[in-house]
Design a protein that fits this description.
The protein is of the alpha/beta class. Helix content is about 35%, strand content about 30%. It folds into 3 domains: about 190 residues, FAD/NAD(P)-binding domain, CATH 3.50.50; about 80 residues, D-Amino Acid Oxidase, Chain A, domain 2; about 50 residues, no CATH class. The protein is globular and about 65 Å long. It binds flavin-adenine dinucleotide (FAD).
């Protein structure tokens, strides 16, 4: 029997396992992929803080991002740049490999080709029941399970914890295109690309870019429209590989713990609601889970009241950020294209950019939200407050 089983070997599950094993606990990870290396749909942008805070090796960094150019629906533009690195562009595949290796070095056991069908919570243990691709059934026992299965899994629902209720759809493709500026991200705002959405173009080394979109639904269809008829259409030379899409949660589970159970990462809805970035917040969840599990072993208490410390921990770091971001996402989804034009023009001409930059933080967006709402342009958002 293990002390901890992590269900889901994505970045959050791998980091959680590494940290749990670092606490001296015997830990296993189960994942439904056949092997540790596989392609991932993700742009791979994280703030510089993520590497420092979680002591990640820099091997997965493909480049540094210094600037962003924002395009309004009618083509007004505004640029922000910094002499300092604003964020890193990663290879998610290399990050996954680095996290896998560091977990292995801590003594974590990995079980691939293990599709978890159920987590049964007993008085004295959890039983993680799974099946391989070939149909072979397996079961692992542990004192505690950390569920880090991303958005697709029904396990949290089966455990009575529900599923994140608010979802975006996101799609991405890689392409060769002209006119890319190294280190500069392009962001396209407008309802035309899919209601309440934004699209991005991120240069990657070798003359390619990652082009993506988030929309409330059917992102792949909206991305096809963006590639065909947006201002970037004339710059596209060749689409490289398949377009892939995946949902992103933007509000957390109402409860992220239970008897002998913790939920972390996308499965818990630990995501920045404005941008959909889930790596940094998911890693905060992983660290809080490892700390809480270690504490539970010291006390010998794995009941829900004891594990509720987990939710207090991660919420004290990012709870306000998520609720403020979700509130802002709702307001922003009601902005018209004219409002977006006005905001981008105000950034360019009227000093809104200064307000924005003073409050800007790559990972924590609540200060920018409050600054925007209290700025002279706040009325654009306030007029879209939901009716009482
Ligand atoms: C297009 C797109 C672009 C993105 N860009 C960024 C970005 O630039 N920056 C950023 O921070 N975030 C970004 N994200 C979000 C980021 O990819 C996720 O937040 C992150 O992958 C969440 O990690 P996770 O470990 O919680 O879940 P996942 O990465 O989904 O990993 C979950 C793992 O669990 C496995 N699993 C699921 N169910 C089971 C089961 N029943 N049994 C066994 N294994 C199971 C899955 O196969 C998977 O390996 C993007 C997302 C999308 C869709």
């Amino acid at each position: 029997m293990y002390q901890v089983v992590v269900v889901g070997g994505g970045p959050v599950g791998r980091l959680a396992a590494h940290l749990v094993a670092g606490e001296g606990l015997q830990c296993a990870v189960v994942d439904d992929h056949p092997c540790p290396d596989h392609a991932v749909t993700c742009t791979g942008i994280v703030g510089t803080n993520t590497f420092r805070q979680f002591a990640l090796p820099p091997t997965s960094i493909l480049g540094e991002l210094h600037a962003a150019r924002i395009f309004s629906p009618s083509g007004f533009t505004f640029s922000v740049s910094s002499s300092r690195t604003m964020a890193y562009l990663l290879s998610r595949e290399i990050l996954a490999r680095d996290l896998y290796r560091s977990a292995l070095e801590q003594g974590v056991h990995f079980y691939f080709d293990f599709h978890c069908l159920a987590v049964k919570v007993k008085n004295d243990r959890v039983i993680v029941v799974g099946r391989s691709e070939a149909g072979q059934r397996e079961a692992l026992e542990a004192q505690v399970a950390i569920i880090a299965t991303g958005v697709h899994s029904h396990l949290t629902q089966m455990l009575g914890l529900g599923r994140p209720s608010s979802m975006l759809d996101a799609a991405q493709v890689e392409a060769e295109m002209e006119g890319l500026e190294a280190g500069t991200v392009e962001i396209y705002l407008g309802r035309g690309w899919g209601a309440a959405s934004f699209a991005w173009v991120v240069p990657v080394p070798g003359g390619r870019s990652r082009i993506g979109i988030t929309t409330p639904a059917v992102a792949a269809r909206h991305l096809k429209g963006f590639l065909a008829s947006s201002p970037i259409a004339g710059r596209l030379q060749r689409i490289c590989g398949e377009m892939r899409s995946r949902p992103i949660p933007w509000e957390p589970l109402s409860q992220t713990y239970g008897n002998r159970i913790l939920v972390a990462g996308d499965a818990a809805g630990q995501v920045k609601p404005i941008t959909g970035g889930g790596l940094y917040f998911g890693f905060i969840g992983a660290a809080a889970a490892a700390q809480t599990v270690a504490e539970a072993f010291r006390k010998g208490d794995f009941g829900a009241p004891s594990l509720s410390r987990y939710e207090q921990r991660w919420k004290s770091r990012i709870g306000l950020e998520i609720s403020t971001g979700a509130f802002f996402r709702r307001l922003a989804s009601r902005l018209t294209d004219e409002d977006l034009d006005a905001l981008v023009k105000a950034c360019r001409d009227d000093g809104l950019a200064r307000i924005f930059l003073r409050a800007q933080d790559f990972d924590l967006h609540s200060k920018v939200v409050f600054a925007l709402l209290h700025s002279p342009w706040g009325h654009l958002f306030r007029k879209s407050f939901p009716d009482k």
